[in-house]
Amino acid sequence: MQDGTGTEHHINDVISVETQGPVGLICINNPPVNAASHAVRSGLWQAVELLAGNKTIRVIGLYGHGRTFVAGADIREFGKPPQDPWLPDLCNFLEECETPILCVLHGTTLGGGLEIALSCHARIALPGTKIGLPEVTLGILPGAGGTQRAPRLAGVKAALDLIVSGKPIPAEEALGCHLIDRILDGDPRQVALQGAYAVLAGDLPHKRTGSLKVTPDPAAISAMREHLKKTQPLLFSPHRCVDAIEASTSEMTEGLGQERHLFNACMESPQRAGLIHAFFAERAVSKIPERHALPRPLETIGVIGGGTMGSGIATAALLAGFSVSLTERDETGLSRGVETIAQNLEGAVKRGKISDTDRQSLLSGKLMASVGLEPLKTSDLIIEAAFEDMAVKQAIFSELDGIAKPGAILATNTSYLDINKIAASTSRPGDVIGLHFFSPAHIMRLMEVVVAQETSPDAVATGFKLAKNLGKIAVRSGVCDGFIGNRIMTFYKKAADYMMLDGADPAQIDKALTGYGFAMGPYQVADLAGLDISWAANRRRAATRPPEERYVSVADRLCEVGMFGRKTGKGFYIYNDGHPHPNPVALSFLAEERGVAGLKGRPFSDEDIVNRFVTAMILEAARVLDEGIALRPIDIDAVFLFGYGFPRFRGGPMHTADQIGAPELVRRIETYALEDPYYWQVPKLLHVMAENGSSFEDRNREAL
Ligand code: 3H9
User: Fold this and answer.
1) In this protein, which residues make up the domain named 3-hydroxyacyl-CoA dehydrogenase NAD binding (predicted)?
2) What average pLDDT does range 48-65 have in this prediction?
3) Total domain count for the chain?
4) For this structure, is 173 an active site residue?
5) Which pTM was predicted?
6) Ligand 1 pocket: which of 28, 70, 75 to mutate (most atoms within 8 A of CB)
């Protein structure tokens, strides 16, 4: 950490100081991301006090060791009793320091890290640095002076964009809006030293950000408020961010006071807990029992089937830089697949993901398309996305067994079928795994990695590695009908159908659930996915459906008259002008079905709809957990957050269950059971939790 001639002194485990003539250097070394933990805050305070008290030191250079300068406050400390010094006090202390402090930004200088930098008196970023205030994505606002100092340097409009979007910007843009003073190449320590001498020489001006005045911009403030009202009406913290930035036109101390008040309100909001849970869920899912196994090499990916799923998977693999071999049964299917991939890639160009030249070279250089399985003999990993039928899949896997090279991973994209049976049709069940993508596969972030009885640990590790390469979030699931996501969805979809039969119209159910924060309601989802998809599964399950189970056949009847949802323009809704309008045919089928069941239809409040739907989701999720299909509650949360449009600010179904509490969930289920004792049965796990007062979070903590 030191290669000069000065003296080095460790303040504590994470902060060290060094003197180089008139320059004092402070280094933060708190891997992995130099989060501003209590040790960092107290060590930094002491280091500045030490150097500021040394009359020979005329400038201080502050930098971070490792991959980044401080990436934010330590999120793990949120919700625990605060420990002095607080980050806001530290930032004020840095700003007040008589000795000028130069800060070097590198890596991802985010949140509290940027707030530290803004409190220093000059800032230099290394090329490639990403600079941002992402607090809003965690349900809070920059609470260590960020809402006051960013507008002082960059103006109200730029501060609004940075803080309300939460999106990091490149160093060049930060330079353009004066958040930083210079971009300089080198390692952080060298740049700190060089910058400090520039400050000493008067080449790099230094100033106190808090002493600057903000020019009011009421037009930008009200435009942002209007925008948020339309786009994020349910979220709490974006609106508070605007309030705090508006306060930056006051004196610094007054603005900081206002920021504190608004920050505390965000911290107390349940949305903060939900969003931070979602942040950790995204990272927790990779902590699987197989994480120490060595993934197999991955260069070429084979895809069997050129339908929507197969083409989407091939697109995702191409976009991640893999060579892809697409196969189909015949030329017609193959050209349809290639055409879909070409369209998907065009979409990626439009979204700015790739250039048109990239698109052309992916299509001509990385994609190989052929009829029959033979060309897959060189693929490292083969994903079958053929028709959802056990006999079809077994035939493919048995043929593949004779073609795929030794060590190739044989994956199925089945969404419901028993992977143990598919694996049994090969002589190498250890290589067989489920990789369940979600449609559109090149866009949706979730991928379930389904581990069958004999799947080897390195095959599982390879599935996770593939997900990482594709930019997806992989969740480990055991084998059952529908795995984690579709199994739970099949169950809660019934709760929606029963409410529909008992009196709530599909549009009311969808509206209540989107009002709760779901991206779409169950009937909008069904129309989008295609009613014909569940029609096939419904027919498959019909033979084993117990007589006590209520069954609502509106969707099946729509399929019988050719209404498959969006793809045919009609389903639960009609889409003649691009917008959904209730389909009278669906409503008449519903009325007929109510008549046959002797039901008049009773009113449901939106609250009742949400409670029944979410309770059903939690009920089946508790069973999935108890059976060991999901490793931990947080894995189930990740599935629903990243694959099923569950509102991120609510943290997922299991996090929501903890907010409701097991005793209340048991009470609800027992009440609903008075109407339908077959469907509403309290799962064993919820009974146990209600009795011993434990939570799903307790289970996460034990497992992680
Ligand atoms: C804030 O600053 C509030 C202030 O305004 C006011 C206070 C008063 N804390 O993502 P990765 C962990 S709010 C604790 O896999 P990458 C992470 O959990 C904060 N831990 O790496 C993981 O642990 P594990 C504002 C953190 O390279 C490990 O580091 N800042 C924090 O893909 C590696 O993370 C943010 O919101 C943290 N702040 O991405 C930034 N950050 O290995 C949040 C990370 O045990 N962080 N960890 O699973 C990020 O966006 C990404 O982590 C980052 C690196 C881009 C930095």
Assistant:
1) 300-476
2) 97
3) 3
4) no
5) 0.94
6) 75
